[in-house]
């Protein structure tokens, strides 16, 4: 500690001595007024200075003040002499009284009113106040009348290196992309030093790295941090803890220092391709799975993160490219396999697909490390499900003449169990569609028979539903619509459309039309109706009237 104090005093006093040697002769050789400020120093120096003043003084009256200096943080057993006020009006007879006013007068700075000596009574800190402005005046001790006008002067507090550098904004956080080239800018730090930046090197800072090499470097004077090692991989190490030192005195021995930390995080770039966790995946699915249902998931892992880890999935080969599809789960980045078309265990029992995962966002700087995609094989086994019976036709159309005999067979429906076990089928009529129970069905062979007479003129169509049920599992049921058309037979006689009453004048002429008659028939022959008209037998031989077809 004594050696450190000695170094600090030497750093401070050396420039003062040089300033004294350089400036003092020019001051004393210049024209001066009657009054002078004397710097602090040894008694010998003061004596020599007084002698030189007597030689160089002019007789012109007035004050001429120069700056005084006092060393900051200086403390000793006695107050420190800052300087001396003097006027050549003072003959040394103690008739003159020196008065000091202004910043710190009477508290920080005290003047000997007889000699003009100014002493600093307290230890001063330049960083709190760098200079003090005071006013000096010489008055008659008896009358207090001013002998000269007051004069203002400044006492400057001389800096010593008593403040270490500080990183006010620290600790710091910074990011830099992984795989950056050497010399890539990371961040800039800044330290401040409360010491005087003008005087000496007390505030001249030099930066260095204490921890963080060989990964990063720092410019000694600009404090710019850069990468110092190429190809730093985030996937190997993501975060670095760097300690930066700022040292004053230009970095020389004896300088004070301060430190801060910089946490540097490597940000991700797309330098890794996706990779399937397995080369072969196995899935099984029931043949009756609903369309669009997921049947399995595959996953291509990517060491990158965020957008750089996103992949899209595709089916690029296989015998089920039109049966299955694969989409990307945005949350998990899984490839989700779904069914696009119905499956049939009895037709095809397995499928083999080749799926591909490819990065969506490719960084062209790393194309040489590609390809940024991977493939895997997916085997899908279709499992048999207990399916309901299947009718031989989706609909049935039957025709029957309206005069068909009861219990006659109108037609037949057939169905089978598509499962390998092939359960027997039983048939029935949904009676909600045959409320009048006009039809029956043979439960074993599906033959539909007539239960009650038909009348086309009453109902031309009958729509019923046939139900097929597996005997081994009654929950497996299928339905099919059956439309029954009733065909016409000529079972209805013609009828006159209306009652007719004809009138004839007594002077009617032969061949005159008396009345036109028409007939209708409830039947519906294919070629339309053709009626023959004639008079009743008792009127056939009547020579007065005849009837003929109206063409």
From TrEMBL:
Keywords linked to the UniProt accession: Calcium, Cell adhesion, Cell membrane, Glycoprotein, Membrane, Metal-binding, Repeat, Signal, Transmembrane, Transmembrane helix
Cited PROSITE patterns: CADHERIN_1 (PS00232), CADHERIN_2 (PS50268)
Main location: membrane
Residues making up the signal peptide according to the UniProt record: none
UniProt record, GO biological process: adherens junction organization; calcium-dependent cell-cell adhesion via plasma membrane cell adhesion molecules; cell migration; cell morphogenesis; cell-cell adhesion mediated by cadherin; cell-cell junction assembly; homophilic cell adhesion via plasma membrane adhesion molecules
GO CC field: adherens junction; axon terminus; catenin complex; synaptic cleft
Highest taxon listed in the record's lineage: Eukaryota
Classification via InterPro entries: Cadherin, Cadherin-like_dom, Cadherin-like_sf, Cadherin_CS
SUPFAM superfamilies: Cadherin-like (SSF49313)
GO molecular function terms noted in the UniProt entry: beta-catenin binding; cadherin binding; calcium ion binding
Family annotation (Pfam families): Cadherin
PANTHER family: CADHERIN-23, CADHERIN-8
Protein name (record): CADH8 protein
Gene that produces this protein: Cdh8_1
